[in-house]
Amino acid sequence: MQLVIVVLAVLGLLCCSTAAAAADTLELVLVQLIHRHGARSPLTPANASLVCPRGCGLLNYQGKDMLLKQGEYLRGRYNGSRPDVFNSTTPFFASELYPSGTTYDVRQVYSRSTDLTRTLQSATGLLKGLFPNETEYFPAVSTVQFLQDQLLLIDVSPSYHIYQQLDANKFTAQLKVFVDGVFPDHSVVTAMSVENLIDGYCSGEGSWVYVNCILTLQDIAAARNAEGRLSSLTVTQQYFQQLNSVREQWNAYYFPFNASNAVNVARGSLGQNIVQRMLQNMFSAIASAAKAPTNPDLADFPYKLMHYSAHDTTVMPYCATLGNDGYMLPPFGQLYLLDLLRNSSDGSYHVRAAQSVPGQTPESMHSVTESVFPLHCIREDGTPYTVTSITGTCPLYDFQRYINSSLPQSPDGTCYLAPEALAAIDCDVIGGDGPLPNTTCYFYRSYCSTVACPNGTMLSPSTYACVVLSTTSVGGSVSSGIVAAAVVASAFASFFAALFVAKLWGRRKAAKGGKYTVVAS
Known about the structure:
Blueprint: H1 2-24, E1 26-36, H2 48-51, H3 61-78, E2 109-113, H4 117-130, E3 141-142, H5 158-182, H6 186-195, H7 199-202, H8 207-227, H9 234-238, H10 240-254, H11 262-267, H12 272-291, E4 305-310, H13 312-321, E5 335-343, E6 349-358, E7 368-371, E8 375-378, E9 384-387, E10 393-395, H14 396-404, H15 419-424, H16 439-447, E11 457-459, E12 466-468, H17 480-495, H18 497-509
Parallel strand pairs: 1-4, 2-3, 2-4
Antiparallel strand pairs: 1-5, 5-6, 6-7, 6-10, 8-9, 11-12
């Protein structure tokens, strides 16, 4: 028995010392992060001038400070004394021109934001906290037109958007049952709507209005909590957690990946676009380091930081794609980290994950709390496992195998619609001389021009109808003129996609019939 104990003890020491040795040889190569914007004024479909007199959806002082504090946290993590994260006396973001690592260097930092003021300001706020030397602080933040940002916005994912519309009535009925369980006394909801100046909106008829009233109250309450004003709303403060539970229930219906759901499997997890981009960044960094190990200026991929500033509707699908479906109520300023490390002993690459969140009230001084973000991986033999420590890593290829397990099974990807879904939106019709019957079909065909029409048809550039291809009399092949027309039609469709989507967006924002539609928040 004593011999067994001794052997186990020795094995334990060997295990621990091996892990420590392995940790010592891990060199940080690339930091990637994605975060929600900081606190903002509310988003409301009613009485906007009263609810947010200085403008709705705008970053406020508290939101700016949240991102500054996140930047300061990152500076401590990568440029400070954190040997558990970066085992070097030289700051990770140091360069030959700026050796202290406190100066923003556009050559090694790439930032991308959605095209909204609150996310753009949040991006620059984080960078300012990370690089406090304002003498050289001229940050570059890339963006694309909001309605075309398929990297950071799932709202413009055709499959997500259209199935959300098709499921809306069924899910509203389900959520109404949940809401009634949380708020059995409707007078409480009435009192909160009066406190928050939207009682006229909440007094409307129907399940849609009632559910959307609750969701709007939650949004206002979260904003007031961040401003330090929630205590003045007596009833709302008392039921703040119940309001949050309704929002979380809504999010948990739409954003996780369900491997038993045929639509989910066909289109893949909703965060695949951004996570695959991060994987691409990792492999680009590896290839670039191999080509230009001593001169970063010659590198194809010179970046040390890839930074994405977005919304809760971005980070929730990101979490789900990484296997963390339980993260469905991200607070303001929530940040997720993904580090790439190289083992200097054998040259292998590894991935590490963590998360951080700023305090949500003025009293918290927005101090940042770091915590574990579970890292799901799959070994070469198909065995899944999870890393549950802040310093834990898994091999890059194990991480990639897990991410790829939720790739789209349909070649249509985010354009996937089952035949019954196409029929439900009147988008399975071939031919026709006039315009399509609805903007949803326009939306689908404008974004998905290469797959929207069945074989033997092409997209008409003038009507967006699927037109039957004519053939020549020789061998039944499609004439070159028709092929050219099809190419032009496809290009035309892509070029004018935003125009048609703008129509759709206007319709969504109009909240027809009192329906609540989540647009990046």
